[in-house]
Amino acid sequence: MRVRGSVRKTGSMPVFDHLGISVENLDRSIAQFGPIMAGLGFERTDGDGSVSWYREGEVEFIIFQARETGSGPHVHGRVGWQHLAFSVDSRDDVDGLHAAAVDAGWTVVRDPKLYPRFNDRYYASFLEDENGIRIEFVFNPPKDAAPAG
């Protein structure tokens, strides 16, 4: 339903349907993203020039072979991609996914640690792939929740 130039959302459908990114080498990116997405409980589907991962109730994540090779890598801080944060259930999950990403060839930007500048519960790590794609694993429980892992 339109309301003064905007869409009023009703129901329980997520606002974001999917997130797609282009990569320099699809096979290498599958090898890097595959263990992370599997660790998060997503199932893989191969397409024509793309691969996607989906988990019920979540936003589909798709990587595409870049149409214009040699145009990367993306440089963090420039116009465009900033980072994608994966919310997880515990500090142990942050640590485990961080280790899986390192094993899959991701470069560590920041090791897992607390980030009190965000809040006293914010525990996260940051990594980048060869395309300059930056990801974060974050455990950020509500203020009144007991710490996990």
Total domains, how many?
1
> What's the rounded overall pLDDT mean?
89
CATH topology category name: 2,3-Dihydroxybiphenyl 1,2-Dioxygenase, domain 1
Cα Rg: 17 Å
Q: What's the arrangement of strands in the largest beta sheet?
A: 3-6-5-4
Secondary-structure element order, N to C: EEEHEEEEHEEE
Strand coverage percent: 25-35%
- Helix-and-strand structural type: alpha+beta
Percent range for helical residues? Answer: 10-25%
* First-last Cα distance: 43 Å
The low-confidence runs, each spanning 5 or more residues with pLDDT under 50, are none
| SS elements, strand count | 10
The main sheet comes to: 4 strands, mixed
Number of helical segments with 4 or more residues? 2
Task: Tell me which CATH architecture applies here.
Answer: Roll
Shape: globular
Protein architecture, described:
With 149 residues, this protein is of the alpha+beta class. It has one domain (16-65, 81-139): 2,3-Dihydroxybiphenyl 1,2-Dioxygenase, domain 1, CATH 3.10.180. 18% of the residues lie in helices and 33% in strands. The protein has 2 helices and 10 strands, in the order βββαββββαβββ. The strands form 3 sheets. Strands 3-6-5-4 form a 4-stranded mixed sheet, with helices on one face.
